[in-house]
Each structure stands twice: as C-alpha cells, then as structure tokens.
Request: fold
Amino acid sequence: MNLLTPDPGLLFWMVLSFGVVFFLLAKWGFPVIVKAINERKEFIEMSLLSAKQANEKLASIQAEGEKLLADAKMQQKEIIAGAMQEKQRIVQAAQDEAQTSANQMIEEARQSIQAEKEKALRDVRNEVASLALDIAEKVIGERMKDDAMQKETINRLIEQL
Amino acid sequence: MMASEEKEGKVDIPEIIFGHIGDSYEWHIAEGAVIPLPCILIGNEGMDVFMSDKLEHGKEYKGYHIADEGDYEGKIVNAAGERPFDISITKNVLELFIVCILLCSVVLGVAGWYRKHGSKKAPGGFVGMMEAVIDFIDKDVAKESIGHGYERFSPYLLTVFLFILTSNLLGLIPVFPGGANLTGNIAVTLTCAITAFIAINFFAPKAYYKSIFWPDVPIFLKAPLPIMPTIEFIGVFTKPFSLTVRLFANIMAGHIIILALTSVVFVTAQMGTAMCASMTVVSVLFCVFMNCLELLVAFIQAYVFTILTANFIGLAHNE
Reply:
C-alpha cells in the first residue's frame, strides 16, 4: 500500500525544509531564548541571594543598634549613680567644712571673750587700786595737815622700812 | 465525498478516508473549491512545471497524467506508466511549508522579543507560553535525559518537538490551512527519525561504538558468532524505525477514526430519517470526544518522540 512507502518528492521537500528550519532556529532562534531564560534565572537567583544577605545585614545592624542602645542606657545609669554619689559627697564635705569653721569661730569668739573678760577684770582691778590709793591718799592727807604729825608719821614709816 | 455518494447511491468509505489521509496534487477545501498546486516533474526530457488543474479528471498534459490504477494509483505518471522524479508541491508539501513558516516566524519572533527586551524582563502572554514550552523541553527533557553536554542537542530536540506538535495540531484543523495529514505520512516521520538517527549516532563517543561492536558480554556471545554485536547493530536501526512507525501510526489512526466517525453520518443517510438523525448525534458526540483525545495525542506523540530521542542520545553518551 502506498501509505507505507515514503514518497520521494515529499521526502525531498521534508529533508530540505526540516534542514532549513533546523538551521534557522538552531542559529537564531533557540539559543537566544534559552540563553535569555538562563540569564534571567541566574539574575533572579542572584537577586534572591542578595536580598537575603541584605536582610541578614539589616538584622545584624538592628541587633547592633539595640546593643548600643542598651549599653548607652547602662552607661547613663552608671553616670547618674556616680553623680548622685558625688553630690552626696560634696554636700557632706560642705556640711563638714561648715561645721568645722563654725566650731572654729565659736572657739575664737570664746577665746576673745575670755581675753576681753580678763582685760576688763585687769582694768577694773587697776581702777579699784588707783581709787583705793586716791581714797587712801585723801584719808592720809586729811590726817597729816600739821607738820608735827607729818614728821612723826614719816619717821615711823622710815622706821618701818 | 458528496459526488461519489450521488453517483453510486452507496458511499465508498475507504476511498473517502484514504483520499483524506493520503496526499493529493490539489487542495480540496469544499465541493467546487479546489486550490490547484504546482506540479514539478523531472523526467527524461528535463523539468516540467505546471499547475495541477491541467491534469484533473484524467486529462493529459505534456505526456503526463494521473494514474487510475496500478502501483502508482493517484500519482503522476508518463505515457509509458513510469514515474518521473516528482517534487510537486502537493497538499502535504504545502502543509509542510505552512508548518515551517509558522514555526520559524513564531520562534524567531519570540527570540526577537528577548533580543529587544533583554533577559531581565519576564515575558507574558504568547511569548511567556512559548518560554514555558521551550524551557520545559530544554531542561526537563534534554538536560534530564542527556545530562552533561546537552546544549549541543537542545536546539535539535526543540525543533523536532515543535515541528511535530505544530504539524499534529494543524492536522486536527479540518479546513485550510490545516487538515493535511503531515505527521501521519511516513515520509515525514521517516525524515524526523533519520535526523534522530544522526543525532544519536554521529555525535556519540567511541565507547558507544565499542558497546555495539564489542559489547561487555561473555566471549562466546560475540565470537566466533557475533550474536550480541548483531543484536546491538540491529538495535541501532530499530530505534529510529520505532520512532517512525509510532508517530506515523498514531496520527494516521487518529485521522482515520475521526474520518470514519464522520462518515457514519453519510452511511446512515440512506437508512431513513430517524436512523440518520440519531446516528448523527452519536457521530458528532464521538467526533468531539475523539478530537479532544487527538489534541492530547498531538502533544503526547510530540513529547514521546522528543523524550525518546533525548533518551537514546543520553544512552549513547553515557554508555
């Protein structure tokens, strides 16, 4: 049956056309398409990879930032605590100094009061002595108005010496 | 179809069917609408080119006529009944040209899209569909079956796959530009298989030829009587032969079944209105079913031819 015997004319055209089609497509058709597909695949894979890397980087940066923040907070706390201590120390020192100087002033005042008192007493004593001398002079002066008596007294006094 | 029915009062089903699946010198679209095609004949007196309508209804032109009977029934013969070298643009050849032009314009068009848009942009629509098909054949068929060095064979496998698929699908369209039985013609499938034979054997490494002519079997199987080498050597030719027959038989059978189911309408036309009407419904339903099946077969046969060729190439390279 002629269905099973290949017709030479069709065979000829088939070989020719298939050859031409294969040549055209293998040269300008499929390599371009396959190359573009592969390149895009690579591009997508690379994009995914770099996106992943960027994500990881971002996460690490975030962690670093958080760590930095925590550190800063701790430092702040430390500084505040230190400042508080310093403040207390300074207040304490100021109080102590004030106390000391007050005590010193009191002491000085007391000493000067003491000195004043002693001086006043000394003055009073001198006054009293001079007053007593004056009085004694006056009393003695009244009694020795006559010469006789004066001579007698002087003599007695000389003898007493 | 109608003409023969009117004349004899009885429908000659085999003639209708074989007339449709065979080749012809003109393209019969409908009753009265026939496209004449150029006949190119190289005989003893040189080349003759003329349109096929010069030969219709048994007319003779330049000493050639279409044989009514004998070995060359339906073919152009000269007055002595001998065949000239006939490279006429027959129905199948025209269909072949249509397939080739379609294939080239589609693939080169898709390639042009990539040239224009570069590889960073993803295509949509038709180009995207073609990309999915091409990527499937390139990666899942060629790379998977051949492995290392598959890039050399990928364009061939893609060409043969798309060629068979396009021919199969065009063959399912009942009107022009489809309807010819291209992949159901043994010359076409034979050419495809010969290209597969070349792809399998001509690029194979030395180990492949050693495995054919001096296979790794006990010595008494290859000398003095070369039993295994003979079997292996025959195997080299049975592979493309099976490819030829599988594709040819599948597609031809599909066409015959669809045509036979359609013919049921004309066979039952003489058996009364009720019979004809009911059988027409059955015939149309079966035809729809068969066409869906043939659509599936069109893809499967293209895929099977390609994956078997890829596997044979892979076997030749990894042996």
